[in-house]
Amino acid sequence: MLHSKIGFWRRIASILYESLLLLGVIFVASFIFHLIFRDPNAAYFRPLYQFYLLVIMGYYFTWFWTHGGQTLAMQTWKMRVVTKDGKPLDKRKAASRYLLAIVGILFFGIGLIWALFDRDHQFLHDKLAGTQIIKVEDSAA
After folding, report:
1. Where are the domains positioned within the chain?
2. Which long-range contacts does 74-78 make (Cβ < 8 Å, 24+ apart)?
3. Residues 6+ apart with CB under 8 A from 129
4. Helix (H, G, I), strand (E, B) or coil at 88
5. Phi, psi of 43 (to 5 degrees)
6. Would you say residue 25 has pLDDT above 70?
7. Which listed residue, 50, 82, 130, 136, has the most CB atoms within 10 A of its CB?
8. What is the pTM of this model?
């Protein structure tokens, strides 16, 4: 297993930045959804809308994780998500990491808090999915 040199607060800073970027993605996705489904008072509207946003966010994360291992925020903070043996994530591994992260966050953030007590400072969803976040070294020019 590769050992990460990335601290808890750096990861949290990356998550906060990611949240700002994701807000833009959600804004555009919401605009499209509201153009298609014009009745926000309909009984089906809210659960369908929430599910739609989970799918959009899932697509956002899994696409970046399977195409270079870095979201835009991870690129900024020089992090990459890889498997435990350092290989790139495939679609299945990326999807399981995303779903486990959602569950860990919904349960009072325990999936993130886990990193404070973990020996390698990994999030719970990384432990369960068999992934890890590693530091990206600057390339020599």
Report:
1. 8-135
2. 74/14, 74/18, 74/133, 76/14, 76/17, 77/10, 77/13, 77/14, 77/17, 78/135, 78/136, 78/137, 78/138
3. 93, 96, 97, 100
4. coil
5. -60, -35
6. yes
7. 82
8. 0.89
